[in-house]
Amino acid sequence: MPKVARILAVLLLMTAGLVCPWCIRAWAGTLRFGVGSVTTASLTASATLVGLGIGVFLARRALDARLARTFESSRHWAFLAVGLSVTALFGLALAELGLRVLHRPFKDDWVPSENALGQFDPELGWVYRPRASATQPFGDARRPIPMYFEGHGFRARAVDDDAQSDRPTVALVGGSFIMGHGVTWEESVAGQLAARLPEYQVVNMGVQGYGTDQALLRLRRHVKELDLKVVVYGFICDHVRRNANEDRRVLFPGARFLGTKPRFELVDGQLTQVARPMRYEDLSYSRVGAYVDVLWTHYGPEPQPALTRALVQALDAEAKAAGARLVVVNWHTGDTPPELCGPRPLDDLGVEVLSPALDPPEGWSSWVIPGDYHPTPEGHAYVADMVARSISLR
């Protein structure tokens, strides 16, 4: 008869070691994940497993004797193994069915603002509809913001203000910060750069919810249509998380999005696209697996910035191939310190990085839309001034 109790005790103690705070810090480098600090939960789980392990070990003889009486032969052990396997499979099937009936883990409780202006795109995931326009409320004050998109789907001053192929161009790429979420065109970085640099055409390719990967692919799509001189990429730390993800519902289980997104990985040191966007109605997946993905994403270790760094280098190469230069705005506001993704994570890549939060003006931390985490017109103005000075000096 195998010494089952001893084996179980060892497994419990090994698991306790794996989930203790010191071990988590060793393999993850942090105890702060998407839900905040997991120190208390880690200590509780580790202490509970240690207690169970010690209890099983102390009672090993009684437990082994009880098991020996219950399972007198190897045939009984085989029945036990089969029974446990069937029970586990039945439980998984029941959980899968229950999650499908309850529409979990994704609930579709709210619709992102970009959906009203966007459409699914098989290469980028989602883009703005050409010639679209809408006025939407933002922040606690529900301030109405008019938004217009020209023929390419770029945010513009008006729906007929199309980007021209023969004008020297400053192209802005990135997510909602660079797109101008919650501010008017005139207040946004793009609008203010257009006013400060009349010798350039300013094209805003930013799209709400984009990561660095989508910014790169959007630039590649339009790079030959424009006379590029400068590419400005608006980086926020959340891009590190977005770049590691291909289904935004995992990050926001209550939101209704238009589809999945592209995803890259570093394969043998090379940037390689491993996932392409899909409409949700065409996506087949396990609900149990999705729940595990949600839990791992929110409670597990944060992704490392190596992939994001490689994507920024690819942006730089794309800009240089077009005869332009890349300027990165390492944009942090409010309670989001530059150290969230490591100390100045992009400063050693050989590209120009502007970091307004490293030497901020008075009031910088309060230049956030109330009830939102996006920058106010004052924040856009300060960043636009930094970018304009950088462009004018070269």
What do these coordinates show?
- The protein is α/β, with parallel strands linked by helices and 394 residues long.
- It has two domains: 4-101, no CATH class; 113-392, SGNH hydrolase (Rossmann fold), CATH 3.40.50.
- The chain is 41% helix and 17% strand.
- The protein contains 13 helices and 14 strands.
- It has helices spanning 4-19, 21-28, 39-58, 60-70, 74-101, 176-179, 189-196, 212-222, 238-243, 248-251, 287-299, 306-321, 377-392, and strands spanning 32-33, 36-37, 118-121, 125-128, 133-138, 143-149, 155-156, 168-174, 201-204, 227-235, 263-267, 270-275, 325-330, 352-354.
- The protein has a five-stranded parallel β-sheet, with helices on both faces.
- Helix 8 (212-222) runs parallel beside helix 12.
- It is elongated and about 90 Å long.
- The model has no long low-confidence stretch (mean pLDDT 87).
Q: Which CATH class of the largest domain?
A: Alpha Beta
Order of helices and strands: HHEEHHHEEEEEEHHEHEHHEEHHEEH
- Largest beta sheet: strand ordering: 9-8-10-13-14
Structural class: alpha/beta
What is the name of the CATH topology of the largest domain?
Rossmann fold
Multimeric organization: single chain
Number of helices: 13
Tell how many strands the DSSP assignment holds: 14
Beta-strand content estimate: 15-25%
Q: What's the CATH superfamily of the largest domain, by name?
A: SGNH hydrolase
Architecture per CATH nomenclature, i.e. the level-2 architecture of the largest domain = 3-Layer(aba) Sandwich
Task: Describe the main β-sheet briefly.
Answer: 5 strands, parallel
Radius of gyration equals 26 Å
Overall structural domain count? 2
Q: Distance N terminus to C terminus?
A: 79 Å
- In one word, what is the shape? elongated
